[in-house]
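Bumping my old thread because nobody answered last time. Still need a sequence for this structure:
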């Protein structure tokens, strides 16, 4: 049950929340072109817009059970001019999708409202293709602390936590993401904290996060908290005043979100899903595999030969070290072909180190005329695949900057 309601002020609050933490939550959340992504419980579309903009080549399928919220989401995505998002009115526990229908799933601020989050995570897991990934964001109201501190303000916050618990949810679920994902059967989940720190040097966050995201949320439960006799009116109102006090020039507010992902999405040695790709990305994958295999063979062969012949002091030890390093690079280039977008840094290193290597050989060819032929061949062999990778390499998508 969504305890915050679907009124106009709640819609504005969700927009303020999305704008204030867009870099914190979405800065490293992108999905490769050609992949199909399921957004669970899109609500009013506050996060959907960021998803669509950050992953323009992915197809986002967003659903929600609340018709009023879904209507706002559709309007918001249309106003943003996004064409890679489709919407569906559906219930999480009765989804119309076949098993293994999606490459990735995205769940943001949904589990906290469910009485059975593990069941929900297991249902979503069935929709993932082999090697697919899940990304989950949740907050934790127990992580809120501020200056000036106020016991009464904490009591007001506790009202929201209590009411959400009575409705079957958990406003402090962020700290539980790791065990929830593990119990739901996700392999090697990785959870990281995302801390929001707000003071007078960030006036935009003072307004959008401290005031409109958090304090408005707590303030909205006033009547329900009074009706449930959790707190009296004077104490609650005093607590809200103290929360607003944190928005003044000497005030400070901190809150922690938690991001949970399946480890295969974060660790490059893992098997990232190979989505249906464009011709350009398919060509990039071919170049990565060919260059990687050739690099491994070209360096393992002399390395093995040198060891079989016996290393001699007069032969030097530098070459075997470089052969080992380049052979390892070749292995990682082959691994990068699974999901090139996740290996931008590795590809950039391979390209620019090859250009540097080719430049050095070109200078040597000028200074050593007797070896000019073989050095120029080396320049061509080194520079050609680097040029191909440079042309085909995935460009880093511009991070969404919403204020």
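Sorry it took so long. Here it is:
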């Amino acid at each position: 049950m969504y305890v915050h309601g679907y009124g106009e002020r709640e819609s504005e609050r969700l927009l303020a929340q999305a704008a204030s933490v867009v870099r914190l939550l979405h800065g490293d959340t992108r999905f490769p072109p050609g992949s199909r992504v399921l957004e669970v419980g899109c609500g009013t579309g506050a996060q959907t817009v960021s998803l669509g903009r950050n992953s323009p080549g992915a197809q986002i399928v967003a659903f929600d059970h609340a018709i009023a919220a879904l209507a706002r989401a559709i309007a918001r995505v249309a106003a943003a001019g996004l064409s890679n998002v489709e919407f569906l009115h559906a219930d999480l526990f009765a989804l119309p999708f076949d098993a293994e229908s999606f490459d990735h799933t995205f769940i943001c601020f949904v589990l906290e409202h469910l009485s059975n989050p593990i069941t929900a995570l297991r249902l979503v897991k069935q929709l993932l293709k082999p090697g697919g990934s899940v990304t989950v964001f949740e907050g934790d109201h127990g992580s809120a602390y501020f200056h000036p501190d106020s016991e009464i303000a904490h009591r007001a916050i506790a009202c929201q936590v209590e009411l959400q618990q009575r409705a079957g949810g958990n406003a402090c679920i962020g700290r539980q993401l790791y065990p929830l994902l593990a119990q739901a059967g996700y392999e090697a989940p990785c959870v990281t904290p995302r801390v929001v720190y707000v003071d007078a040097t960030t006036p935009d966050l003072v307004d959008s996060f401290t005031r409109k995201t958090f304090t408005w949320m707590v303030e909205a439960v006033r009547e329900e908290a009074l009706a449930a006799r959790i707190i009296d009116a004077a104490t609650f109102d005093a607590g809200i005043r103290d929360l607003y006090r944190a928005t003044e020039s000497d005030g400070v507010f901190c809150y922690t979100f938690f991001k949970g992902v399946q480890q295969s999405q974060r660790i490059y040695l893992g098997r990232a899903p190979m989505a249906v790709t464009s011709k350009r990305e398919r060509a990039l994958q071919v170049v990565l595999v060919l260059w990687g295999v050739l690099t491994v063979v070209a360096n393992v062969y002399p390395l093995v030969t040198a060891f079989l012949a016996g290393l001699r002091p007069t032969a030097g030890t530098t070459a075997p070290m470089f052969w080992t390093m380049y052979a390892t690079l070749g292995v990682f280039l082959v691994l990068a072909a699974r999901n090139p977008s996740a290996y931008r840094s590795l590809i950039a290193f391979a390209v620019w180190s090859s250009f540097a290597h080719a430049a050095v050989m070109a200078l040597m060819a000028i200074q050593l005329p007797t070896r000019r032929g073989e050095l120029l061949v080396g320049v061509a062999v080194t520079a050609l695949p680097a040029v191909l990778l440079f042309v085909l390499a995935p460009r880093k998508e511009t991070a969404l900057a919403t204020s």
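The chain has two domains: 8-265, 279-392. Let me know if any region looks off to you.
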